[in-house]
Specification:
By secondary structure, the chain is mostly beta strands. The chain has one helix and eleven strands; from the N terminus they run E-E-H-E-E-E-E-E-E-E-E-E. The longest helix is centred in the N-terminal third of the chain and has 10 residues.
């Protein structure tokens, strides 16, 4: 029988600017954020290296964005129907902390045990893509981590489209 709840969970309110955020599993800061940003924009809106993942999101900014970080003992249930944007990747945590950051907004940290993780990043509550918008548009995000020896490729599972938008 699968696990039905995370081992630990951290709820916080963070700030997002420039339509992107990063999650980092190391304090060394040696990731090339410019390169990750270009890869994310040109590809599936997510790009990662060993210790950092960059996600491009629908909103330009949200200065009071709820974020939940969950650590699971095994892959969490796939509740994809509850989310409008869904991404997956792999991430290494070294130093006992996961750091959330967004350009010009500083960082927020939470405790996460060292190890290699599968990561699922989910968001919902979007009102538009890009700008104009609001500094408090109402979107919420969840990050789930679980131990994984596999190197999950960066991928976008679900993309939100504004009502009436055509591809």
């Amino acid at each position: 029988m699968g696990t039905t709840a995370p081992v630990t969970a951290h709820d916080m309110t963070v700030a997002l600017d420039y339509g992107q955020f990063t999650l980092s599993g190391t304090t060394e800061g040696d990731s090339d954020l410019g390169m990750l940003g270009r890869e994310a924009q040109a590809g599936p809106h997510i790009a990662s290296d060993d210790h950092t993942v960059l996600v491009c999101v629908p909103h330009q900014n949200n200065f009071e964005m709820p974020l939940r970080v969950e650590v699971w003992a095994e892959p969490p249930p796939r509740d994809f129907g509850q989310w409008e944007e869904i991404f997956e990747c792999a991430l290494e945590v070294d130093g006992g902390e996961l750091s959330y950051g967004s350009p010009t907004m500083g960082e927020r940290r939470c405790e996460v045990p060292d190890g290699r993780y599968g990561v699922r990043i989910c968001g919902r509550g979007f009102v538009n893509r890009g700008w104009p918008g609001s500094t408090r548009p109402g979107d919420v995000w969840r990050v789930q981590l679980w131990p994984s020896r596999r190197n999950l490729p960066d991928r976008r599972i679900r993309a939100w489209h504004p009502p009436g938008a055509t591809d």
